[in-house]
Amino acid sequence: MSGGQQQRIALARALVFDPALVLMDEPLGALDKQLREHMQIEIKHLHENLGITVVYVTHDQGEALTMSDRVAVFNDGRIQQLAPPADLYERPENSFVAQFIGENNKLPGTVEELSGDRALVRLTTGELIDATPVNVTQKGQKTLVSIRPERVEFKPEMMPADAHTIDAEVLETIYMGDILRVVMRVAGSDDFVMKMRNTLGQTRLSPGEHIRIGWAPADARALDPV
User: How many domains does the chain have?
Assistant: First the structure.
């Protein structure tokens, strides 16, 4: 039998007794990518249709986001955040969660001003950017600003009116089929990433190009420094 068939049989054996709780410890780790993704959806549908509770242990962040109603992120035996997948990804509560779940850009700086739901952050290279304060509470506090790569824009017409823009140098553009992954030098960091949809007429950026990038202040989160 193939790996996928073996996994289906193991799953059927676990469910045939109508358990109230099923514990799955990285059950899909040995499968290839396509089969793994198919089995993720299959297990999710079984969970929904049968109404059983599934505790699923995985180190694959994409798998956790795909399959879960709630995700618990642990570090050193402590829960860092327990939340639905969208909240965990869109609104991480600390730097560890932001780095652990999905790809994340991080820019170190110092809080210059705090006003309601806005923090003005001066980066270590001197630039000023707006961010949403999460666990910073006072002026002068060190912070790590978190921005997801897919929220970064370089076309002015795609940026919100209140976006703070910053200079960037293109280092590499990686073709990934459905997206283009652009690695840039931003505020002294050589691993800042922007993800662009591979659409008809999409601008292809070349190494050495200098551009201005920006994002909505709500998409930048001022977190604790690590």
Answer: 2
